[in-house]
């Protein structure tokens, strides 16, 4: 986060554009959590402006990802595409696709990149994707921004405990995932 904050601070009048570029890159890459750019935006621009900038950046990133994925990854069949919700979204269009994308955006444990890629590989139109994403990202981003603000205000001891807890959860998750693959 410090790298992003310093990049924003050193960008002067272009800091907003730099923030948007970071958000788009994070979205296109699809595996880096957006919490880092949200934290940087809030620490550099303040809560309200940082939240608005993060929201605009996340929407822009999702739309650019959708467009790039649609253009470049039509033949790609990632493993997560076998999930029943993902299969439903891939076959949906119109009003049904709007509600599916909206509901998936509201679920915090579904990676944004997976939703972007799945929607891009579906029959969903750009406008439906944009509207559902714009509405669905707002509650998740509000929770993320509030959480980031609390962590930024926390003492170093609490931050260390949070980092250790996240690392522990990640290790346990990957350990269990590898065990499951070995059994298959």
TrEMBL record:
Membrane topology: Multi-pass membrane protein
Annotated InterPro entries: TMEM64, VTT_dom
Domain of life: Bacteria
Leader peptide range in chain numbering: none
Entry keyword Zinc: no
VTT domain residues: 32-148
Keywords annotated in UniProt: Cell membrane, Membrane, Transmembrane, Transmembrane helix
A cellular-component GO term for this protein: plasma membrane
Chief localisation class: membrane
Transmembrane parts of this sequence: 20-39, 51-69, 97-119, 126-146, 158-175
Places the protein is found: Cell membrane
Keyword Phosphoprotein included in the entry's annotation: no
Similarity annotation: Belongs to the TVP38/TMEM64 family.
Protein name (database record): TVP38/TMEM64 family membrane protein
Annotated organism of origin: Peribacillus castrilensis
